[in-house]
Amino acid sequence: MAASRTPGQGAAAAARATFSLDRGSIVRGLAIAVFLAIAIFFLPTIGADWTTTFTSVAIYSVITLGLGLLYGRVGLISLGQVALLVIGVWTATRLSFATDLPFPVLLLLTGAVTCGVGVLIGLPAIRLSGLYLALITLMAAGAVNVVLVAINFPNGGGGFTGRTDTPDLSGLKPVARPSIAEGDTAYYRYVVVVAAVMFLVALLHVRGKPGRAWAAIRESEPAALAAGVNIVLYKLWAFALASFMAGVAGCLLAAQVGQPTAQSFQTQDSLTLLATTLIGGIFSLWGAVVAGCFSQLLPFLFQVQWGINPNFVLILFGAGLLQVLLTAPGGLAQQFPKDMANLGRLVWRGVGKVTGGGSGS
Amino acid sequence: MIEVEGLTVRFSGVTPIDRMSVTFPGGTCGLIGPNGAGKTTFFNVLSGFVRPAAGSIRAFGEDLLAMADYKRARWGLRRTFQTEQAIEQLSVFDNVAMIYEHSGVKGAGKRAEVQAAIEFVGMEAPPTAKVGGLGARERRLVEIARAVVGRPRVVLLDEPAAGLPEEETEHLRRVIQTIPEQFGALVVLVDHDMSLVRACCETTAVLDFGRLIASGPTAEVLLDENVIRAYLGTEDIA
Questions:
Q1: Residue B141 DSSP SS3
Q2: Domain B1-76+193-238 sits in which CATH superfamily?
Q3: Which residue has the higher pLDDT, A17 or A222?
């Protein structure tokens, strides 16, 4: 055929090039396995308050995962993720007070409820884009916060609507943790496993049909439309997924703290969360892990370990954000391996010069 | 066959398409005209980006305008854009697979069909290569592979040869000429390269200021007095 320029390469050879397990994916798989092993077996041995912090890191990396999916894959900026997280916390708390559901069911149910709320917010919001979407979601987050403070969240008491007027929350029953993971270390491991499952769900989405449709939307909406992508459906899907993740994170958080209060979730947290997500990197799922570390581990290091005013962390976030916007749009998750490779090359060249008399180039 | 009847598009005070009636019988049909003649607007009407003020379009007997925009690709309408729109983040394979997934074709033939489309356009880059790292020619070919995958019925090519050097256009010409017989699709080609249009299209329609000024066999149309005047200006030169 006249149009074929590559007669030598058959379809089979090309298909092999596309689908065989190349060295890159083996290295990636190994990295994930090593990372999970360290997270599950080594990290909890450092110390009790470290374990609590790492639990928070795992939980927040699930939220930043959703945020990164929205912005990095679909191009939607949501500043309402903390509101969805709070809705997750609230739902889990009420469900836990009112029922004796097993924890995995509680997780799924909380995820589903939050997903529903997210879709309700998303339905009108995804018709907007860029700054307007960011503003609308920020307003929604503010509204949720006002409501929660007004009803004195989580307003104690048994059942769905029970409330207590005592300001002292210490007598209240805490949100139940899973029966197999009631201790802090066991619960931390439980959270890591749930977070890993969420990352797997995200990976399957990104690598699959929705990921390709999202990439098309992000590149150009008209072209995506011409390609047959139902833009409203796929944007809503991304919104629903991110909301589900926020809900799951909320449930995990509720069980971690036991007695959550409205004061611990501020609307402006959504802004710092977006900043850390950008610093971590929105084009790689690893970025969400980095973002989780930035938003939870760094304040812990500053405040508890080093005794520095944690407000300095905010300055650091600002500087980091500038750095990302100006020089490294892929965030730390993409920049760090590049920098390390460059450094490795430099060192290697230096070693070569010393030992091989300049022959190693 | 595409039958356009009395198609009119109005944007506040401007009429980019004015009572256009034309039939694209099949094979590869040319659509030419000076800049601003309404060619891309016509494509945008077909894609559903622009709602016409009046008129009807029947494609293979079906009312195209009654179809939701995103469902037209599933029906079999494909297009390329003047500024190519291949997805930079994705690999060549994923770019083409993405359209296939929304084409409504059922079955397990995805990998083979996507591969076949990539081979058909004669890509030199491997299917795993990210489109963001490819050159202009390869990106164009990715777009065309996207347009022919998954049983297309109508393929709209909006200036596919723009900015390509001659030997690349030559390759492109061979690809375009093969689309109707290979995929059984009707191709509408918009381009300013008259030798490309002459080589590919049995019939050609000419738009000028939104009006159809000629249509018929390409060789005749290109010699039409009105067409020459539209391209060279209305003043008498001699």
A1: helix
A2: P-loop containing nucleotide triphosphate hydrolases (3.40.50.300)
A3: A222
Taking the domains of chain A in order of start, what are their residue ranges?
38-164+173-266
* pLDDT tens readout for residues B6-27: 999 998 888 999 999 999 998 9
Q: Give chain A positions within 8 Å (CB) of B49.
A: 222, 225
| pLDDT interval class at B136 (50, 70, 90) | confident
Contact A219 B71 (CB under 8 A): no
What residues 169-228 of chain A have any CB closer than 8 A to a CB of chain B?
Answer: 209, 212-213, 215-216, 218-220, 222-223, 225-228
- When pLDDT is cut at 50, 70 and 90, the band that residue A340 belongs to is confident
Residues A3, B81: C-beta atoms closer than 8 Å: no
* Closest-CA distance of chain B to residue A213, Å: 7
Does residue B112 sit at the A interface (CB-CB below 8 Å)?
yes
Q: Is A13 on the interface with B (CB under 8 A)?
A: no
Instruction: Beginning with the edge strand found earlier in the chain, give each strand of the sheet holding B54-59 in spatial order.
Output: B14-24, B2-11, B54-59, B62-63
- pLDDT surpassing 70 at residue A279: yes
Please list, in sequence order, all residues whose beta carbon lies within 8 angstroms of the beta carbon of residue A162, skipping any fewer than 6 positions away.
A97, A155, A156
Tell me the percentage of chain B whose pLDDT exceeds 70.
Answer: 97
Asked if A154 and A93 touch (Cβ cutoff 8 Å), the reply is yes
Residue B90 to residue A14, Cβ atoms within 8 A: no
- Residue A219 has its nearest CB partner, among B48, B88, B97, at B88
Chain A contact for B153 (CB, 8 A cutoff): no
Q: Which value does ipTM take for this structure?
A: 0.87
d(CA B125, CA B142): 10
Region of residue A133 (phi > 0: left; psi between -120 and 50: alpha; otherwise: beta): alpha
Label residue B4 by pLDDT band (50, 70, 90): very high
